[in-house]
């Protein structure tokens, strides 16, 4: 079975439409702006930020934030 890949422009438009429907325009813009070309070196920053953390540490922090209601993967919460 072969699946025809969509052009990236079509994928981007579909993704933006879905995000707008689920999160609203303002939050979609904020989300998309994270990925715009900026400055700095994300790899270096990430390595500094997580330098003393294991994967288990990161997961524990996420779980703690969820328990406190500070983090949700559901855009409606």
Number of strands: 0
**Between the first and last Cα atoms, what is the distance in angstroms?**
39 Å
The backbone outline, from C-alpha atoms, is: extended
* Total domain count: 1
Element-by-element helix/strand order: HHHH
Rg from C-alpha positions?
A: 17 Å
Q: Beta-strand percentage? A: under 5%
Query: What does the average pLDDT come to?
Result: 87
Task: Decide which structural class fits the backbone.
Answer: mainly alpha
- Determine the fraction of residues in helical runs and give it as a percent range: 55-70%
Low-confidence stretches: none
Please count the helical segments: 4
For the biggest sheet, the summary is:
none
Structural features, described:
- By secondary structure, this protein is mainly α.
- The chain has one domain (8-35, 42-67).
- Helix content is 60%, strand content 0%.
- Helix 1 (8-23) crosses helix 2.
- The longest helix is centred in the N-terminal third of the chain and has 16 residues, at 8-23.
- The radius of gyration is 17 Å and the shape is extended.
- The model has no long low-confidence stretch (mean pLDDT 87).
Briefly say what this structure is.
It contains four helices and no strands.
Notable traits:
mainly alpha, single chain, 77 residues
What is the fold's blueprint, element by element?
Elements: H1 8-23, H2 25-33, H3 42-49, H4 55-67
Helix pairs in contact: 1-2
């Amino acid at each position: 079975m072969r699946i025809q890949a969509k052009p990236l422009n079509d994928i981007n438009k579909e993704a933006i439409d879905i995000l707008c429907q689920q999160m609203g325009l303002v939050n979609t813009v904020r989300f998309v702006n994270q990925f715009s070309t900026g400055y700095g070196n994300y790899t270096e920053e990430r390595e500094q930020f997580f330098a003393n953390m294991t994967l288990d540490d990161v997961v524990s922090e996420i779980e703690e934030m969820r328990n406190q209601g500070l983090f949700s993967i559901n855009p409606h919460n």
